[in-house]
């Protein structure tokens, strides 16, 4: 995301091959000054739309479990928390964090791929 010619966020969508080809993984980062203003939600929605056009069954996201506001933003877009992965993320200082694994189902698994 760019605001006033300054990069304030990045969102990426990752696709898989083989048995994971029905999934995409969404990653997002926003500068602190633009958080809670809807910028992230618009970025996430744009990547959901790309996944739909690619006939992806589900979009996944992994968020540090302590980031309740971020998790709620994803849930407001339809994501569901499936599990918590203990000590899954390590910070630069070596401290471990639990991660919430969220999924947004775009298609029924009974549909042809």
TrEMBL record:
Q: Which InterPro entries does the entry mention?
A: Acyl_CoA_acyltransferase (IPR016181), GNAT_dom (IPR000182)
Record-annotated N-acetyltransferase domain positions: 1-109
Molecular-function annotations in GO:
acyltransferase activity, transferring groups other than amino-acyl groups
Designated name of the protein: N-acetyltransferase domain-containing protein
Q: Which organism is it from?
A: marine sediment metagenome
Recite the lineage of the species. Answer: unclassified sequences, metagenomes, ecological metagenomes
